[in-house]
Design brief:
Blueprint lengths: L2 H11 L2 H11 L5 H4 L32 E5 L2 H4 L12 H5 L18 H14 L4 E5 L2 H4 L9 H16 L3 E7 L5 H4 L9 H16 L5 E5 L2 H10 L10 H25 L4 E7 L3 E3 L4 H16 L2 H4 L10 H8 L5 H4 L6 E5 L4 E5 L8 E3 L2 H4 L12 H12 L7 E5 L8 E2 L2 E2 L2 H19 L4 E7 L18 E4 L4 E4 L1 H10 L1
Parallel strand pairs: 1-2, 1-13, 2-3, 3-4, 4-5, 5-7, 6-8, 7-10, 10-13
Antiparallel strand pairs: 8-9, 11-12, 14-15
Helix pairs in contact: 1-2, 6-8, 10-12, 11-12, 18-19
Bound molecules: beta-D-glucopyranose.
């Protein structure tokens, strides 16, 4: 059905719900770019890859003595061992089997074999003079049935990993959920089933009791907008479901689970620092007109505010029309208070900026994205705009909320085409990227935003979700044929900078 037909039919039916579903399914607002993932395009002309090293305009000491420097990763993207030691399948194990879902049909059954090679990867982290490591737990490794019985071998694995970190002076920062829901729970409706608040609670309770004696830095969820939007609205990520009727309940249950998760960590882990992470993208209006400014404000609400504001006790953003109304219909007695939790820190994850313009033919939101490719701006290999000031803008924006005590940049990084040559990867573009973004982190910090840490995405190259292995975000290059690791020049830059 083309857009013309859809508009006629929906106005005939007079159904805003149908319009809304279709709107979001087709909308350029609610697209891959706005949710954090962009399909690669022909971008070689505009890759932001300067060839010369700039003078570093700051020192490690400028960020303060207690600033946490580290690298981040996620279970599904690195561990492999997809059926080892009693692990069950997650929704991503299933999704990667579905034809056409992953570019070139790649899967993550082996990934970077981090399950077995973590000592080597942690040695590389230390070689970069980093003392903090962010990783996630695979729910389906710890509780193969999602709830109930615990898998002792899975628990042993994470005990070994955590102990190995600590024995080497590396602080583990653990994310409870980085998108790999056990398939058995998706079979019961996944995030669209309100019971997930209890399922997730049971898992969070177990994990924090098992590891909370040694792990003090916890993050409840990774980027709710990404996994709910891409997984339950757009169908581009696992579990591949589409439509507002999936998105809306999944979003509300996610909001409840993020706060409930926070309460569980608080209860179980004395001395815990509890956070949760958000994808965020500064949104600029296309033109300096009231209509485009309004469009930018709506896009900002959708991509940046939808999940953090309920946690801060502010409820859902009010300017999203039908979406706001549908979300609020999900709220049951008692939910409003349960949606809030006083996190100790907020994880900011920033990759690109967005530009919004007013659009007449989208009746619900009147918003359209102006893609980076149409604006002729520098982009990474996935077509995301490289815009360091956007990091500053988002830190200022999040820093201006009442109730945020501390911010940690829990992910920031870039994919450029890397070439292994003579056992080395000369990635000057990535070095420039980190320098430019760190300038902006420091700028926000100097202006009083309480930024206390920075994690590069990612420690090693890894499985980039529906893009497969092609985009490489690592500070460490992985030769997937041999599983050999090579520290990229950007990793060497961090080693010098943090020495
Ligand atoms: C996710 C990572 C992902 C990265 C790069 C973030 O949205 O948390 O898992 O690899 O972006 O696309």
């Amino acid at each position: 059905m083309d857009r013309q037909n859809w508009l006629q039919i929906s106005s005939l039916l007079g159904s805003w719900l149908l319009a809304g579903q279709k709107l979001f399914a087709e909308s350029a607002v609610f697209n891959e770019a706005s949710l954090g993932q962009v399909r690669p395009e022909k971008v070689s002309d505009r890759l932001a890859m300067p060839q010369s090293r700039i003078q570093v305009p700051f020192h490690k000491a400028d960020f303060g003595p207690d600033f946490c420097w580290g690298a981040a990763s996620a279970a599904f993207q690195t561990e492999g061992a997809h059926e080892a030691d009693g692990k069950s399948h997650s929704i991503w194990d299933t999704f990667t089997q579905r034809p056409g879902k992953i570019k070139t049909g790649e899967h993550a059954q082996v990934a970077t074999d981090f399950y077995r090679r973590y000592p080597e990867d942690l040695a590389l982290l230390q070689q970069m003079n980093m003392q903090h490591f962010r990783f996630s737990l695979a729910w389906s490794r710890l509780m193969p049935k999602g709830i109930g019985a615990v898998n002792a071998k899975g628990v042993d694995h994470y005990n070994r990993l955590i102990d190995h970190c600590l024995a080497n002076g590396v602080t583990p920062w653990v994310t409870l959920y980085h998108w790999d829901l056990p398939q058995v729970l998706e079979d019961k409706g996944g995030w669209t089933n309100r019971d997930i608040v209890n399922w997730f609670g049971e898992y969070a309770d177990f994990a924090t009791r098992a590891f909370g004696d040694r792990v003090k830095q916890w993050m409840v969820l990774n980027e709710p907008m990404s996994f709910v939007g891409l997984g339950y609205q757009m169908g581009l990520h696992a579990p591949g479901r589409r439509g507002l009727h999936n998105f809306v309940p999944a979003a509300h249950h996610t909001v409840l689970a993020q706060a409930e998760g926070g309460r569980i960590v608080r209860r179980n882990v004395p001395g815990a620092e509890i956070g949760t992470t958000y994808s965020c993208s500064h949104v600029s209006p296309h033109r300096d007109t009231p209509a485009d400014q309004l469009a930018a404000a709506k896009m900002d609400a959708l991509v940046n505010r939808l999940f953090i504001e309920p946690a801060l006790g502010m409820g859902y953003p009010q300017n999203l029309g039908i979406l706001t109304r549908h979300l609020e219909k999900q709220i049951r007695p008692g939910d409003e208070a349960n949606m809030a939790f006083a996190f100790d820190f907020i994880g900011v994850q920033n990759y690109f900026r967005l530009v919004a313009k007013h659009s007449w033919w989208l009746p619900g939101l009147l918003v359209e994205e102006v893609p980076a490719k149409k604006r002729g701006v520098p982009v990474n290999e996935m077509g995301m705009e490289v815009h360091p000031e956007g990091m500053y803008e988002m830190l200022k924006q999040f820093g201006s909320y009442n109730g945020i005590k501390k911010i940690v940049v829990t992910e920031n990084g870039v994919c450029y085409p890397d070439r292994l040559h003579n056992n080395a990867v000369n990635d000057q573009g990535r070095i420039q990227f980190f320098q430019d973004y760190l300038v902006q982190v420091r700028r926000a910090k100097l202006e009083g935003v309480p930024v206390e840490g920075y994690f590069a995405w990612s420690l090693t190259d890894n499985f980039e979700w529906s893009e497969g292995y092609h985009p490489r975000f690592g500070l460490v290059y992985v030769d997937y044929a041999t599983q050999q690791r090579y520290l990229k020049d950007s990793g060497r830059w961090f080693a010098d900078f943090l020495a």
